[in-house]
Amino acid sequence: MGRIKQPAGILAPHDARQWSRRDATHLLWRTQFGATAAEIATTHKVGLAKSLERLLTPQKETADFEDIESLLREAAYDTGAVGDLQAWWLHRMHYTANPLTEKLTLFWHNHFATSFSKVQSVPHMATQNDRFRAEALGSFRELLHAMAKDVAMLIWLDSNANRKRHANENFAREVMELFSLGEGNYTEGDIKQAARAFTGWHVRDDKFWFNQRQHDITSKSLFGKTANLDGGEVIDLCLAHKACARFIAFKLLRAFVLDQPTDEHITALAARLRVHDFAIRPVMRELLESKLFFGAAARYARIKEPLELTLGACRALGVRPNLQAINRVSGQLGQSIFEPSTVKGWEGGRLWITSASLLQRNNFAMALLNGQMGQMTEPKRAREFYRELLLSREVRGMAKAKVEPRKLLHLMMTLPEFQLT
Amino acid sequence: MRTPLLLITLVFSYAVFTVNAALLSAAMPRNAVGYVEINDLGQRLIQLRDSAYYSDALDSPQIKQAMQQPQYEKIAAGRKVAEAYLGMNLWTAAEKLFGEIAVGIYPKAEVEQPDLVVMIRVTDPAAWAHVRERLEPLITLAEDTVKREMRGELELLIIEGKAFLALHKNWIAAASTAALLDQSIAGLRGDAKVVVAHNPAFKKMERDMGAEHFVRAWTDLGYFRKLAGERFNLPEKYDDGFMSLMFSGIMELAMQSDYLGLTLDADKTGLKFTAGIEGEPKVLGDKFDWFFSKSGTPGTPGMPAVSGLMGGLSIHRNLSGWYGKREELMEERLQAGFDKFESEIGNLFPGRDIGEDIMPAFGSTITFLAAKQSFEHFKGEPGIKLPGFALLFDLKRPQDGNLFQLVFQTIVTITNVVAAEQGEREPSVMTAVVHEGVAINTIQYLRPPQGERLDISYNFMPCAATVNGRFVFCTSLELLKSLVTELKKPQNLNRLNRNFNFELHPSALAGLVAINSRTLVAKNIQTGKPAEQARAEIQLAERLLKAVEILRFSTSVKDKGFQIELEGKWAE
Fold first, then answer.
1. Do B400 and B449 touch, CB atoms closer than 8 A?
2. Which among A294, B115, B181, B552 could bridge B164 via Cys, Cβ 3.0 to 4.6 Å?
3. Distance of CA B447 to the CA centre of its chain
4. Partner-chain contact B526 A80, CB within 8 Å
5. pLDDT on residue B309
6. Is the model's pLDDT at A125 over the cut of 90?
7. DSSP state for residue A243 in the 8-state scheme
8. Contacts of A322 in chain B (CB under 8 A)
9. How many CB atoms lie within 10 A of CB B60?
10. CATH architecture for residues B2-54+92-198
């Protein structure tokens, strides 16, 4: 395989000579759930290249992290309660040494939205989550194939009802509409053909089971190819479809760069996905060091997801979060992990903000500062320190506000600017 | 500033020591409507200080965390100031000065705030003399607000004309009026002809509850009844079914009582708190005969002595009697709810009437208990291990057990269908086993569950049996077998006449904490605590539970009264 050319145009690398403290803040808020002042300082000091290397390369977790992670996971298995599974993942998000992996795990969870409400199994949901994590920076190709055989996904999309004389189209429809191509890039006929290829992909004894007796072995036609296609071949045809890379590029841009990507942005990133054959690590590296990522259009261009808001605020202010409380508030704000609201996942963007949720976001700020989200130490630093930490930009009138530190923090966290990242 | 400091310091320094002295109720001026007495407080505090519980508590993460708070630093500084004034540490001060303490409350016409009398006898007169010496400069400094006067061996202090104190080498008396102080001095010298102890209502309390206690409190209910009206403004009929069932008899009895007494006793083996009222249930007539066990009868049976008993409650209530009198006992607006209850629950008893057939089938005692269970019938265990639970009730006639077996089978069938539908547990079929000649109806899983983290629902294996005139519904076959063995034994009739008995066996509960400790620590970590702290807290909870052998809350019908007891026994 020949050497892959560096991206050009909007995805060309950001000029390292312009690396600033605010660039470091921008990078960290997009690649992890908030950032401490120390993390921002270190990231600024070591520069973009080393920081990206840390984010994109697996880091060893601490023994304390491993110990608690295992304890929380076992508790979720013991109780079978989704609340305990949610707490386990929130712990990972906040304390991991691999924050970008967790952020991408959340991205894939939203992409392959599967809910505990139907699956009703902690082990199945946790196993699916492990797979997202394992492939977070791996291969989308591998992940899509894996999801077609994932037990939680098969239960979620009624795969056991997909039989050769009575095909159930749920999985085939979602593979095209939600997982690989997006609406408008396939026909109803394509779905019917694909559904037949997935007949007999069942669950038995809590494992994937290829039910040969229920698999349709007759000829199917999809995207111009006619053969006795099976599910794996359908997935490969979807991956080869020109819409697939654009669809994933659009989603990655919305999750990491800006809420409203343009056609130019999508085309550029889709090309890189094709170049790297859907390998996510190199694509993320190129994206996160690009002019696009550090350009003006990408700054403060995303509305914080509830978890970015809640965990991010805790991280920034050094609060050891009460995971149950964070989970409750994030759920109230519309992001209950392991329980996405629809098969489409959380659409996010402007939909995160409504008149009700904005009030709840402000209430969260008050609860955090009152110590209800975890023990909060008295803020003692200068206002400029907190402005950079929480807002990372100048805010008109802020310098004149004469209020005590805790009220100043509340003021900052209820500003529209704080809702953006 | 000086006056409050003086008062605070005096509170730490009370006085009087008299060998074989009478209780302070024999010195407290008459006409009190409330009286509290604490005996031997200093010694009890020292016992507490030297106990393992105290050192455990000091080692707890919560206390250690509290000690780092600014408020604690202020308290610690205040303590050092007080100790400097007293010339000894507070524990020693408590030991040497806190002998007997009593407070009397006196109504004052048309004034909301009552008059008060406080009396203290010190344990060690020499220590008290030392403290008085140390306080001397403070009193002198406060001369613009404190008037001093000597009356024989007594030193009188009048603070701003509002508080009157008499300091004796062995005691202190304080009152909010000069007249009450004079009466108190007379009482303490043994010169008073009428004192609180002579009040007929107080005498009744001493008759029913005894005189010698660590703490006792007495209230003249007759006085408060005059103020609040004959029924203390409570309505004739209850507006809450649960309150009616659980408390109406006690409340009605309290309305007849001349006193409400409270006592607390504590020693190295445990503590006992008792609340008592006067009254014989028979004076309430037929309306409340369903509530009380008859005086002189054994009352509710004790908890069956099954292995690993964690606790339970047993209650004497004639449900049929209560239900039959519901229109007399409860407000009209509740009656529609009972009708609705009858029509809904009636589905479980086809062809039977709840009021006429089902309620009369209940006897007069209902027991609910929890005990440790093993999971030998599975190839594995549930992830969260719960105890087995059992509900037992007397049957009016043994054959009525068939009625409840029918309900048991209906419930099991419904839950079986629901559980299978949700895929939470294996489907089961009804079966029966015989244990010591008693048929037990239960379920059998078609495919025995296996695995180390079975669903929490596998803690519940429904089973039921009729044993010795009692119907038992249980969530553990193992527990029901133990209950059958226990219930077949002859009943112990030589027991206290308890009307209600709730008991906890914390040391057994500690076992439950231990087997679920991993999950409990995880839950604690979820609240944001560091792992070390979360573990330490669960370990402390386990240790504290192990330290208590039994906690019991019970009520009993006495010859002339009714008493509520809270009792705790420490494990050895």
1. no
2. B181
3. 46
4. no
5. 94
6. yes
7. H
8. 526-528
9. 17
10. 3-Layer(aba) Sandwich (3.40)
